[in-house]
Amino acid sequence: MSSNNQLKFILPLLSITVLLIFGSNYYLYNKLTDEYSNQVTSLNQKIDSLEKDLNDQVEYEKKLRSEQLKQLDQKASNIEKNLESQVNDVSSNIEEVRSNTEQNLQDISNKVGGIEKKSSLLENKLSQIEVSSSDFSSIIEDVVKTVVSVRTNIGQGSGVIIDSRGYIVTSDHVIDGATEINVIDYSGGSYSATLVRRDTNLDLAVLLVNSVNSFSYLQLEDEGNIGVGDRVIAVGNPLGLAFSVTEGIISAENRHMDDSGIGYLQTDVSINPGNSGGPLVNSGKKIVGIATKKIVNTEGLGFAIPSNIVKNFVAQSLP
Fold this sequence. Notes:
Layout (H helix, E strand, L loop, with lengths): L1 H127 L11 H5 L2 E6 L3 E8 L3 E4 L1 H4 L5 E4 L5 E10 L4 E6 L9 E2 L10 E6 L7 E12 L8 E4 L11 E4 L3 E7 L9 E5 H9 L4
Parallel strand pairs: 7-12
Antiparallel strand pairs: 1-2, 1-4, 2-3, 3-6, 4-5, 5-6, 8-9, 8-11, 9-10, 10-13, 11-12, 12-13
């Protein structure tokens, strides 16, 4: 009896204990399940967020690389255009240089032809010059190169180059009243000229040839080296014909033939109208005087303005 009663109390207690254990385990299971589910959800959210960030970063990198590729393409295009432009410029420059070279070669060829022609003309003109004395044979060619024909709208005469820049001495009466002055050299070259200075009393004038060329010229002799009996030649372009040379001597010095105050050199060299303004030259290839036809009524005599007067006049005329 006693055992049965005890058993009655024990069974319910066991049942309650089992139920409590089961309920506790069930609660714990559900709680663990919820926590796991929450953790899984949280992890999925983090994965989604990371995936979104990764996708955003990938898109950003794509856009950045795309923009960089566009910039590189633009730079490459600009470089290509620049190279094409430079190639075109170089091609144009090469063509221009080639064209200029051909033109320069043609100009040189023409100039050489002109020089050869002038040289031939000079040889022909020199062959026409006759000088009886051998004293001047070695200097005739050099002297003739410095003598010019001065032609104006009202007349003509001669002149001589006294400076490499193209300064010329002639007689004042040769250019008196002229509005246009031209100079023709020994080879036939023609140049316009301007009046630099003139002196009617001295019958001297200085002209300047309008040219960039450098000219052959003669120097003026010192007064102390000029004396009676010295052999001289007069070079000029009488009557506008070919250049000619006439020879003679200095017959006298310091001849006062007019009221100019000049003591002229007297020579037996005949001074023709075309020789007026041309040089009287000694065997040393220097100018001893400038021939003048200003003095009249002197048949068979020639007169020249002495080099010392010409030298002073030139010194006041040239820069």
